[in-house]
Specification:
heterodimer; A: alpha/beta; six-stranded parallel β-sheet; 23 helices; globular; B: alpha+beta; 4 helices; 9 strands; about 30% helix; elongated
Chain lengths: ~575, ~160
């Protein structure tokens, strides 16, 4: 017999059973009962955001930076719809979050009641799964299932819609210790025959490339990646989501591939004869024109989600399984066969020579200008000053790509960025989540002047929680990435990308009680960065950068990745 | 790659929203549904869905994988994959049946083993069961008489038991 309690209490009890210490939310009529229980509870810290989108992104940033499940709590109707972008962002990047939404009482559902919306209907295509609770008896099992589904298999967001009368109803709280769902059985162990085939292909390779994506981070396979790459002397490239899962300063790292990837990473992939892809899903920003992507390569693809395999590119050795376990099995074979390190060094010597030629021909670069700040210079300086150890959140657009190119991420879960959905306004609320989950780490949001304005209201949240987040605005007065496309592909017709009116970001920071600073000259960059890194409060550094600086290399959309526009 | 017709047997948790998930998957990812039939199974907690779709092998593989990815989907079988299956569909056809063509309609019904399940002074309602080709044939033959209403169930299908020699 479980203890009898209200549905609202069950929610709080479940959070505690799941070890949730912090949640992000915004109260409203349909969740007052849960907030009332929260009021009586020690040990679950609630972060009051200023817009529900911020709650979803913060839960997401918390999850990305800690590996735990992030939780958001919002009311029905607009509370729920405001989280939609945040849920979709988490869904595209396979981030485990649980979103709790209030709903009008069951009797009113379907009546167009005040603040009623079909939340499960709206979020069905952007959640891994969602639930509408109709009976109090179901609530404990649904709460358990939600956390279980969110964090297992290919992780993702799960939403629970809880009508107000269910929150008020009383029932027995039998929280299952474990849960088994007959229709949901993610495969973790890879097929050993397939792993053997993969090894045989790798052993015969002459020009291999190791491509890793976000799945390596979510399965915690970074150590296995490093071991395999070093043992086999493999050149390694990362998707945006994979950055940090292999040290960016490692000599075998080719950096990011794809639309704004390095010349040498794209050339290596285009010319490789074996591509070992792990936890990556061959997004169009990675492949460019699909038929010209790794055209000579036998592709080995390890992914926990069978739908990712054979979806965009044809794969020779499909392996369904957890990235970490699959790489462990592969390493077991590598160790059993036990070829000397020299074998792999000799075998790929010529290939590495070719790659080094590409690397020298077009390294990542930009033209330094003593009169105007180049954004790449800011990122480089930030990398030096933080030794590549900070948690870096980004918004979306040029700021994101410059960060991916010039900050050499060394550890997993240190780049927090919206890869799949490309959500402007993600970075700052995500930084709030990341800082809540990592109170002793340095958390920085690299923003553009467009993106930061999309969730700038969360400055109040950060101040209320006394979070010492550093916002660095790379301010070019433009929606820079769209401007860059207009410059390159639309004959410089700059349609609606000039942000002619902007707030004074320094004064705005001050209005929120934060520290604000503006710089316009390159020699101010280092002292300003030092200053904000030392300041123990929310900081906004407004960096006026070269207005028409572009992100290069660039593969135009739909072109082969070898058709890069270089600086 | 060439397109083929594919009949999928899908066992899905009998929960609200399960059908919407499946329908949404098809519309959201641009897959086709030719017909869809849903009913209870012997186990009341599971529903059985028969879904007829089209696509090349890669698309059909994606459809099956994407269906399996849904948390509520218990089992997906491509009934058409090995070719050895039975397929049935039922139609109710309300056809104009005046003096001059009643005989003819009854003859057609006899040939195709259809049943006349309702008779009014001016119409028959005909029940026909069979595979799609048979239904199509009956419909074509009845068209000249004047079909007033036509309702079809969509296909249901089942793999044949493996025959041992």
């Amino acid at each position: 017999m479980g203890k009898v309690m209200t549905g609202a209490r069950m929610v709080i009890e479940a959070l505690q059973k799941e070890g949730v210490e912090v949640i992000f939310g915004y109260p409203g009529g349909a969740v007052i009962d849960i907030y009332d229980e929260l009021y009586k509870t020690e040990g679950v810290h609630h972060v009051l955001v200023r817009h529900e989108q911020g709650a979803a992104h913060a839960a997401d940033g918390f999850a990305r930076s800690t590996g735990k499940v992030g939780v958001a709590l919002v009311t029905s109707g607009p509370g729920a719809t405001n989280t939609v972008t945040g849920i979709a962002t988490a869904y595209m990047d396979s981030i485990p979050i649980v979103v709790l939404t209030g709903q009008v009482p069951t009797k009113l559902i379907g009546n167009d009641a005040f603040q009623e919306v079909d939340t499960t209907g709206i979020t069905r295509p952007i959640t891994k799964h969602n639930f509408l609770v109709k009976k109090i008896e179901d609530l404990p099992r649904i709460l358990k299932s939600a956390f279980y589904i969110a964090k297992t298999g290919r992780p993702g967001p799960v939403l629970i819609d809880i009508p107000k009368d269910i929150q008020q109803a009383k029932g027995e709280f039998n929280y299952p210790e474990e849960i088994h769902l007959r229709s949901y059985n993610p495969v973790y162990e890879p097929h050993l025959k397939q792993i053997e085939r993969a090894y045989q292909i790798l052993e015969k390779a002459e020009r291999p490339v190791f491509l890793i994506g976000g799945g390596v981070i979510s399965s915690g396979a970074h150590e296995e990646v490093l071991e395999l790459a070093e043992k086999l002397n493999l050149p390694i490239t990362m998707t945006l989501m994979g950055l940090g899962s292999f040290p960016g300063d490692h000599p075998q790292s080719l950096g990011m591939l794809g639309m704004h990837g390095t010349y040498f990473a794209n050339m290596a992939v285009a010319n490789c004869d074996v591509l070992l892809a792990v936890g990556a899903r061959f997004d169009d920003r990675v492949t460019g024109r699909v038929d010209a992507f790794a055209p000579m390569a036998k592709i080995i693809h390890i992914d926990i989600d069978p739908t990712s395999i054979q979806k965009n590119v044809k794969v020779d050795v499909p392996i369904v399984g957890d990235c970490k376990r699959s790489l462990q099995r592969l390493l077991e074979i590598v160790k059993a066969v036990s070829k000397p390190k020299k074998y792999w060094q000799e075998r790929f010597k010529e290939w590495w020579e070719q790659i080094e030629i590409w690397r020298k021909r077009y390294p990542l670069s930009y033209k330094y200008d003593p009169n105007i700040i180049k954004p790449q210079f800011v990122i480089e300086k930030l990398y030096e000053l933080t030794k590549g150890e900070a948690i870096i959140c980004t918004e979306v657009g040029q700021n994101q790509m410059w960060t991916a190119q010039f900050y050499k991420f060394k550890k997993p879960r240190t780049l927090i960025t919206s890869g799949g959905l490309g959500t402007m306004g993600f970075g700052f609320p995500a930084a709030i989540g990341a800082q809540m989950g990592n109170p002793n780490k340095l958390v920085i949001d690299i923003a553009g002047d467009g993106s930061i304005q999309m969730n700038i209201q969360e400055m109040a949240t950060a101040m209320q929680e006394r979070l010492p987040i550093k916002i660095i605005i790379l301010n070019n007065g433009y929606l820079g990435m769209v401007r860059q496309w207009q410059e390159l592909f639309y004959e410089r017709r700059y349609s609606q990308v000039k942000m002619a009116v902007q707030p004074d970001f320094v004064k705005l920071a001050e209005a929120y009680g934060a520290y604000g600073m503006r710089i316009t000259k390159p020699d101010e960059v280092e002292p300003a960065l030092k200053k904000i890194l030392e300041t123990k409060t929310l900081c906004v550094l407004d960096v006026i950068i070269a207005p028409e600086e572009g992100v290069f290399p660039m593969v135009p959309a739909g072109k082969a990745t070898t058709e890069m526009i270089l600086v | 790659m060439s397109e083929r017709k594919c009949t999928l047997s899908v066992l899905v948790e009998n929960t609200p929203g399960a059908l919407a998930r499946i329908a949404g998957l098809f519309s959201g990812r641009g897959f086709n549904i030719d017909s869809l039939n849903v009913a209870e199974t012997l186990d009341p907690t599971l529903s059985h869905l028969t879904l007829v779709t089209r696509g090349d092998e890669q698309i059909i593989e994606q459809i099956i994988k994407q269906l399996r990815r849904l948390i509520d989907v218990y089992k997906v079988v491509d009934v058409t994959e090995e070719g050895d299956y039975v397929e049935r569909e039922m139609a109710l056809i309300k056809v104009r049946a005046e003096k001059e063509n009643r005989e003819e309609i009854m003859r057609i019904c006899e040939i195709f083993r259809c049943k006349i399940v309702d008779v009014s002074p001016k119409t028959y309602v005909i029940e026909v069961t069979g595979d799609q080709n048979k239904l199509q044939a009956v419909i074509e033959l009845l068209k000249p008489m004047g079909i007033k209403e036509l309702v079809r169930t969509g296909t249901i299908a089942m793999k044949r038991e493996k025959k041992s020699i």
